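Protein modeling request. Please complete all fields; requests missing the sequence field cannot be processed.
Requester role: graduate student
Desired output: 3D structure, token encoding
Chains: 1
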Amino acid sequence: MTKIQPGQPAPDFSLYDTEKKKVSLGDFRGKNVLLLFFPQAFTGVCTKELCAVRDSIGLYEDLNAVVLGISVDSVFTLARFKEDQGYNFPLLSDFNKEISQAYGSLYDNFVFDMKGVSKRSAFVIDGDGIVRYAEVLENAGEIPNFEAIRQTLPQLA
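Delivered output (157 residues):
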């Protein structure tokens, strides 16, 4: 599986969001992107992680950053998750697992013998589409180092 390293171009993608619109990485050229892969909607750690991002969205906006959450859940599941939690950033469905794989963020085996679930990961991509921060967690119980992410973003302004 590919391992994305800082300094390399971010793999482009087009995925459907919870409004059933296609969203592409290229749509955000000129802005920084915080790309967060998460295993599954409605699970404890995912909810905690994304709620923390929701509650500090102004900080990311002040750093010219757009936040995008990606999981292999369907657009319908993600729409309910977003509505229930009041997320103020797009959630994208990688139902076919292609983008999670392209970013090296896919478990071969997850809990309950599930195959092909996104690993919890964080990528900061600058306005030119270059990866500036990459963190892929093997343990789904951990969350990304948001302090390191917040230190990376101002350097890209």
